[in-house]
Amino acid sequence: MSLDSEVRKRSDMTEELGSDQDRIMMSSKTTTTSFMQNRKWLLMNTHLNAVMYSSCFWVQIGVLPYLSKKLGADPVVFGYLQTTFAVVQLCGGPIFGRFGDVFGSRAALVLSFAAAAMSYSILGLASTVSMLFLSRLPSVFMHAMQGSQMVVTDISDKEGRADALGKLGVSYGIGMVIGPFIGGLITKKYGEQSAAFFAASFSVLSIIIALLFIPSNTKSLSKEEKSADKPQTDSKEQPGSVFSVKMILELLKIPTVFYLITIKIITGIPFGIFQSMFALVSMEFFKLEPQHNGFVMSYVGGLSILVQGLVVGVLSRRFSEAVLLRSAVCVIALAYALLYMVTDIYQFCVVIIPMVLGGTTLNVITTSAMTKSVVIKNTGAVLGLSMATNSLIRTVSPTVGSIMYKNYGWPSFGLLGLVVNAAVALFLFVHGKDTF
Length: 436
Hints:
Elements: H1 3-70, H2 75-103, H3 105-125, H4 129-135, H5 144-155, H6 161-190, H7 192-213, H8 245-252, H9 255-284, H10 290-318, H11 321-339, H12 345-372, H13 379-408, H14 411-431
Helix pairs in contact: 1-3, 1-5, 1-6, 1-7, 2-3, 2-13, 3-4, 3-5, 3-7, 5-6, 5-13, 6-7, 6-10, 6-12, 9-12, 9-13, 9-14, 10-12, 11-12, 11-14, 12-13
């Protein structure tokens, strides 16, 4: 073979190699672009369903106290009704999380929206107090926000997770604005039960959206957590085991998870009492009509949108999670001190600003930190535990709240919140963790 032929052969091989490398790079760019497009489309539909779910939930929340009073339930029975809802959700939260880990986020979301549609339909048909209690039972699987958090957690990186979860909270906050407003208008013109049927019909629409636009396995879209870098749990459960109590207990043994859940429970008790009784307080203490109560709830939802959409993302990029946790608890304690002195609805609208700021920041930061402390296959379960703390609080808070309100009045809620959160803040500054 001549020298010229050898040179031409090597030149051709180099060109072919370069061409192969170009094809690989183009393929990589196409895959990345496809992933980003799928991620944006998935996020858009997840946020849309979060808005619809929140709207429907707050429509029926606004309806419930007025319908229960219309059917003859007193404040204590109303407290029992709230407790029933909390107990049912407490039982379902961790199971729902495992269900999402095993069968995928789409199946979990469909299950949740179906449960919501059934719950609201029974509420719309309710003609007795017993049917009100019956309407709470399907809510055992009514955890659409938890399902949405599963999706966002699966496709977000660790550095931006707090911001991503905060923006999901924005969608929930939009629903808090829309839902009470719509519910108040429908209740005024057509009655409480019509508002409940409205919520049921839009829950069915959410099922269709989830089936059409949410992939069955969102964990496969995770870029950086396919290989777990924090194997805290060594679960030997079969992949299909949904009712895995051992798995849940193993998650609780993770120091960060246990630490954050304990803080959430303690600081959440005063807020759970306050939240569970506010609908009744607004009706009896502030003397608000259903429409005006809807305006107040929409105002709170607007504050939540502002905090989660703008404030949490900025703070999470500038400060550590430990610093934000301490600061949030201090702000909450201050808010309760001011709440103790509230005598009218206008003062309440001012005081609720620091409470929403502190409470929202605490919730987003603790949820984000917990998902980072487990491997990707267990994020649904740990989100279930996080949601279960809220349900656990609601199992006792309505009953305790009704007793406190009946015997000590509205100011007792502010005093309890001040004492509890001041104690937690002191602990965090003296013995709290600096890193998670």
